[in-house]
Amino acid sequence: MASSSTRKYETRKRDPNPKTAALLVIDMQNHFSSMAKPILNNVLTTIDICRRASIPIFFTRHNHKSPTDHGMLGEWCNGDLIFDGTTDSEIIPEIHRQVTAPDEMVEKSTYSAFNNTCLQEKLDKIGVKEVIVVGVMTNLCCETTAREAFIKGFRVFFSIDATATVNEELHEATLMNLAYGFAYLVDCDSLRRGLLSD
């Protein structure tokens, strides 16, 4: 979903530190396949770059197990939720193949990957100070996770070409807001230059 015009939102530049960064791959699931498929190659490229830079990777999977975990999403989504055990809840195959250990998967039931999950504990345990965010949806789970990471004291890097949502206007609105006060904007090329160049 990125275009050269999204670079106009950059307010500052910095490269992630591979010694203290982690990649968060947000909700690349069948339910979101119409948004996830167009950015799939860029997400896979980002995963590859991070693996080559020895950056740990965590994958989130949004799903609901019971009515007690619906929260406001039950009302907001008119009951159209992603239920555990359904095809919609599964990570798309190309991404699922990238999960190398069970503890890389973080189950969540709301927009934030931090809320009622073990993500922060996992990041703190391995000394992570920075997060790189890719996945879907730009303006919901990706943005909420990025903002909460910033509030929790993590330096945030947000991908412009490996995130997507339902339309370009919402995508760009998130990039504008995050660049203004929460995150450094990155793309596959800048990550490759910043993390893999000698």
UniProtKB/TrEMBL annotation:
Residues 21-187 form the Isochorismatase-like domain. It holds the Pfam family Isochorismatase. Signal peptide: none annotated. It comes from the Eukaryota. InterPro entries: Isochorismatase-like_dom (IPR000868), Isochorismatase-like_hydrls (IPR050272). This is Isochorismatase-like. It comes from Arabidopsis suecica.
